[in-house]
Design goal:
The structure holds 2 protein chains of 2 kinds. By secondary structure, chain A is α+β, with helices and mostly antiparallel strands. Helices cover 36% and strands 30% of the residues of chain A. Chain A contains 3 helices and 5 strands. Chain A has a 5-stranded antiparallel sheet with strand order 2-1-5-4-3, with helices on both faces. In chain A, a hairpin with a 4-residue loop joins strand 1 and strand 2. Chain A is globular. Chain B is 35% helix and 25% strand. Chain B is built from 6 helices and 8 strands. In chain B, helix 1 packs across helix 6 and helix 3 packs parallel to helix 5. Chain B is globular and about 45 Å long. Classes of the chains: A alpha+beta, B alpha/beta.
Chain lengths: 128, 181
């Protein structure tokens, strides 16, 4: 159990995940993840082990941040895993002082810029 | 610095057993760590490793050890497999203050079964001074359930010399295995 279960944030992020999934054409799954790899909220049209994906995104996010720090690149905004059959896009968020990540799995037909635009637009999710 | 004779040793074990602490204690340089804020209320610590730890210790001219640490939680078991691939040795760190450290050992022996076939392994048990039970002999009994005869050492993972003993033990064990084979 993590501390997001009972503070209402999970409900707001569930709505945000569903909304993102609807607005991003070709989105297969959207997962909000705590920095330490817990699934907080998920929406999707495909059966994905969201808890597993969340843990992997947690590691990926930490490795990306550490790699950026070692390389003198500053804070990480986005990480993109570009594959033959689609992309995994991870964006870091700060919600009410809590660091989170949102991960979206999309197919090859989805425009990357569109995904990035929608992910950037949810920065204010806590105000909704 | 790259060194062709570097060995890869992986520290794994339960959350809070001291993997990051061990690598920090032994590494010659500040380690790479991927600690983040812990949100798991069941885990009494403010930070937790979610990616890996990395450090390096020199064992003399032309010989060094690259120290990799895994996250402890089972949800990161994919990192265990990634990091254990091609490991020269594995150190399993356990914490005697956990509810059932013998079951913890069984979990890691099962998960690292394939890696243990090809890599030398040593078990280090922490907090034995404050929590003497289970005794070291009980860990050895668990290893024997798996047909394994491995060193089990009581350690204070904050002490560099204790961590170094674990590493030296892994290397000695690997060399002994190589001689037999």
């Amino acid at each position: 159990m993590n501390r997001f279960d009972s503070n209402g944030l999970q409900t707001r992020l569930s709505k945000a995940a569903a909304s993102l999934c609807e607005r991003i054409d070709g989105a297969r799954v959207v997962v909000f993840v705590s920095e330490d790899g817990f699934e907080i909220a998920t929406a999707g049209r495909e059966s994905v082990r969201a808890d597993r994906l969340a843990a992997i995104v947690g590691s990926l996010g930490a490795l990306g941040a550490t790699a950026a720090q070692e390389s003198g690149l500053g804070p990480v905004g986005c990480q993109i895993v570009d594959c033959d059959n689609g992309r995994l896009v991870v964006r870091r968020l700060n919600v009410n002082g809590t660091a989170l990540m949102v991960a979206v799995v999309v197919g090859t037909s989805t425009l990357l810029g569109l995904v990035l635009m929608h992910l950037k637009a949810i920065e204010g999710v806590d105000d909704q | 610095m790259n060194d062709r004779l570097d060995l890869k040793i992986v520290f794994t074990g339960t959350p809070g057993a001291g993997k990051t602490t061990a690598i920090t204690a032994l590494s010659d340089e500040p380690p790479v760590v991927t600690d983040v804020a812990n949100t798991d209320v069941a885990l009494a610590k403010s930070k937790t490793t979610v990616g890996l730890d990395y450090g390096r210790v020199s064992l003399g001219p032309g010989r060094g050890v690259r120290l990799f640490g895994t996250p402890g939680q089972v949800r990161f078991d994919f990192m265990w497999k990634i990091l254990a691939a091609d490991a020269f040795g594995i150190v399993i760190l356990l914490d005697n203050s956990r509810p059932d450290p013998l079951s913890d050992l069984r979990l890691y022996l099962n998960t690292f079964k394939d890696a243990l076939d090809r890599s030398a392994c040593v078990v280090g048990v922490g907090r034995t001074e404050s929590i003497p039970k289970p005794a070291i002999d009980e860990y050895i009994d668990v290893l024997s359930e798996f047909g394994l005869v491995l060193p089990v050492l009581a350690v204070d993972i904050r002490k560099r010399e204790d961590v170094l003993v674990l590493v030296e033990c892994v290397i000695a064990l690997a060399e002994a295995r190589a001689d037999i084979e």
